[in-house]
Amino acid sequence: MQLYGYWRSSAAYRVRIALNLKQLSYDNLPVHLIKNGGEQHSDRYKLLNPAELVPTLIDDGLTLNQSLAIIEYLDEVYPEPSLLPQEPAARALVRALALDIACDIHPLNNLRVLQYLTGPLAINEAQKLQWITHWLSTGFAGLERRLQDTAGQFSVGDEITLADLCLVPQVYNAQRFALDMSAYPTISSVHHHCQQLAAFALAAPEQQPDAQ
Amino acid sequence: MQLYGYWRSSAAYRVRIALNLKQLSYDNLPVHLIKNGGEQHSDRYKLLNPAELVPTLIDDGLTLNQSLAIIEYLDEVYPEPSLLPQEPAARALVRALALDIACDIHPLNNLRVLQYLTGPLAINEAQKLQWITHWLSTGFAGLERRLQDTAGQFSVGDEITLADLCLVPQVYNAQRFALDMSAYPTISSVHHHCQQLAAFALAAPEQQPDAQ
């Protein structure tokens, strides 16, 4: 397998955790999102991923994009350990928690959005941090309330699920922007338990070959 | 079943299409996203959905949120007609197209984001339209290239899938903001074929009891 990603991309980070949990080896192929105007916009990369975003995973000649679609694919083709429960209601809960992050928090603070805010919309650095903090704290407030009902060691009980693969990169992102995590004890606890596992620790941005 | 939604919400619109395709009857419970500062922020609604977003679906005492998680749940519990192919690679393709819209286009032009841009960030109406158009055209450009490889009558071949349930509401949104669709002939063709079906037509915002 080949994973085209970027060390700090939350979406690539999710896929790295999944690959590690399933003990699937892969070539880590960095796509630098800033250098040369962004390598994700190169003609070569656009052929792999017309959305010009990371990650892209190649498995057995198959080109896959969108981190959650990639992880569900991996879970179907390489089912051990499973990242989703078996029962439909529990699967819906896990997927909803993952999407709470992947649809309603992460896209708003993505690099390309921040670049548009500070570029064409010309907002200043203080406004940019206010924007980032607003969407993180709004999203984490709802997530914290939901996890209070569902979490054990991990987001849903005591098994690792897709929800945890989204939570850990989002907390990494929040810490990077110095969000005060004291209002989110359940999110913090889940994050702490995940970080004890090698599959999560080795997927961390700083552990990647393209980390700066 | 009870569906808490809003006539113009793309996410609620996706779920309405799924319910119609599966011929599942439901009570349509409008949550007005603007009136009274937004009914989604009421104490009563927050108990159902701590993220204070629509839709929320109640099925047999189960409270479900996130449109894509709801639709996957419906597809698992009420499998006819199926909204995902059987084969993992094809499922990944359909999910990726759905997420291209649900993660990378829709959240950026959502009501709460536009409210934040025109409120705290004080951008003007021309800048707001520029923002909307930028993310629509960026997202549609990538989607058009992908659909050129995958589409038949619908997004993936000639069967309705989850991807179509995301595409149609996003095109509705684009038309509302007068996006020039001439650059996206494949998206337009898929949209046209979907609109011929009653399940899509009856799910349209203007057909809802809370339409204004």
Automatic annotation (TrEMBL), chains A, B:
It holds the Pfam family GST_N_3. Keywords: Isomerase. This is Maleylacetoacetate isomerase. The gene is maiA. GO terms for molecular function: isomerase activity. InterPro entries: Glutathione-S-Trfase_C-like (IPR010987), Glutathione-S-Trfase_C_sf (IPR036282), Glutathione_S-Trfase (IPR040079), Glutathione_S-Trfase_N (IPR004045), GST_C (IPR004046), GST_Zeta (IPR005955), GST_Zeta_C (IPR034330), GST_Zeta_N (IPR034333). Residues 1-82 form the GST N-terminal domain. The keyword Lipid biosynthesis does not apply. PROSITE patterns: GST_CTER, GST_NTER. Belongs to the GST superfamily. Zeta family. It comes from the Bacteria. Residues 87-212 form the GST C-terminal domain. The lineage of its organism: Bacteria, Pseudomonadati, Pseudomonadota, Gammaproteobacteria, Chromatiales.
